[in-house]
Design a protein that fits this description.
alpha+beta, Peroxisomal Thiolase, Chain A, domain 1
């Protein structure tokens, strides 16, 4: 697992469709379409806002903070796997933020539908992970604008960086605890249907109220949307979810979404509600910053301690369940082609890989996102799409998500053919 060293902006890559969103002085927007017809899966990913490499980022962040980043708080971002990230201007109004993200979400849904060679009227569900939705009716607005029927199920998942993997897990695993909280089991109801799953993260907006230089250096905008047909183009094999509340507040995140905040000991920290017809909200309880800012986080080693130990346990449990499933299916000897892991930072993933290897679990875990920074729930879907051209029919893939809260979802799936 290595990190690319060339400083190439996402906008400068080949096969990127560029455009401008006419808000403020104009917001640059880039999107890439990826398809694998042999598997029957397609999707799109991309970003919006000006591109900042590691050299130009400090001056931009100085404008946001009002002072230079102290030398002892400047990160070696290339060692953490990030060479670029994308930010929007500082002076957009609340209305402009909403208009921008509705337009962004609409474009990603519309282009993902085209990548799958579907019609908007055929889409029966949209499940999107978002750390900080710009409005409570965000999914209704972007699905309507993309021509998706009102009857389609809309699921917004707010579990920070785990949002898109949790969404996919909901769509595939009927035994997931969240599915047990509903009158309608999402996975059972979506079997064989055309479903869009992804993450849309306007993190440049979200972190604008943060005073934390670590967070400001790490995060940026991006989105990734994948079209799947559960049970056909993507089959569930084994999976586990886990929550371990971050009592110490190592990674504190403001909840820009409704949550009851009332949890008895031993109860789940996840609210599953149906606020509107054909809408489900999965909301994870967060340790919120006391100063009212959007995010406050420990340094990279703090993130390692937060995510690695439990993350390794969850992957180990899924791997054992996967091996049992192979025995049940008479497929002993089959192996996972690749592990698609949330790109929190390179050191976290490298350490997880090392711990798993020490336990005899050897998984290819490619580092696939250098041009975006940490893009929270968007990262797993972008990484999957970047690996998609290399995958073959009936390959088995591990998808590993984790995020603030703290929430973990890992699942092994089989691709279609």
């Amino acid at each position: 697992m290595t990190v690319e060293s060339t400083k190439v902006s996402f906008f400068d890559r080949p096969n990127i469709e560029m455009g401008t969103i006419n808000i403020g002085q104009g917001i640059p927007f880039g999107i890439e379409c990826v398809t694998n017809p042999a598997i029957g899966i397609g999707g799109v990913y991309g970003t919006w806002g000006d591109s900042y490499d590691n050299d130009s980022l400090p001056a931009f962040l100085e404008q946001r903070l009002g002072h230079p980043i102290p030398a002892n708080e400047r990160l070696n971002l290339s060692e953490l796997g990030f060479l670029n990230r994308h930010h929007i201007p500082l002076n957009l109004t609340t209305e402009q933020h909403a208009e921008l993200e509705v337009e962004v979400g609409t474009r990603f849904l519309s282009q993902a539908i085209k990548a799958c060679n579907w019609q908007p009227s055929e889409v029966e569900a949209v499940l999107i992970g978002m750390s900080a939705p710009v409005s409570e009716d965000y999914l209704n607005r972007i699905t309507k604008a993309a021509g998706i029927p009102d009857s389609a199920l809309k699921v917004s998942t707010h579990k920070a960086c785990d949002g898109s993997t949790s969404s996919l897990h909901l769509a595939l695993n009927p035994a997931l605890p969240e599915n047990k909280q509903l009158d309608q089991n999402i996975a059972e109801s979506l079997y064989g249907k055309k479903v869009l799953v992804g993450g849309i993260e306007g993190l440049s907006r979200f972190i604008v109220s943060s005073h934390d230089p670590i967070a400001l250096q790490m995060f940026g905008n991006a989105a990734g949307i994948v079209g799947v047909i559960p049970g056909k183009t993507m089959k569930f094999l084994a999976g586990r979810s886990r929550e371990v509340f971050d009592d110490e507040g190592v990674l504190q995140v403001a909840m820009y979404y409704p949550h009851s905040k009332l949890k008895a000991e031993g109860e789940s920290n996840v609210d599953v509600t149906e606020p509107m017809m054909n809408n489900i909200r999965v909301a994870g309880l967060m340790h919120e910053p006391e100063d009212g800012s959007s995010i406050a986080m420990a340094g990279p080693m703090g993130m390692v301690k937060l995510f690695v130990r439990t993350g390794v346990q969850v992957v180990r449990d899924v791997y054992a369940a996967y091996q049992s499933k192979l025995d049940e299916l008479g497929m002993a000897g089959k192996s996972l082609a690749v592990a698609i892991v949330h790109h929190a930072n390179f050191k976290i993933n490298k350490l997880k890989e090392k711990h798993l290897q020490n336990e005899g679990i050897v998984l290819p875990m490619p580092w696939l996102l250098t041009e975006f920074g940490n893009v929270s729930a968007a990262s797993n879907m972008i990484a999957f799409l970047r690996e998609l051209p290399n995958l073959k029919p009936f390959d088995h893939v591990l998808i590993d998500g984790f995020g603030a809260g703290t929430y973990y979802d890992a699942l092994a799936i089989e691709l279609g053919g």
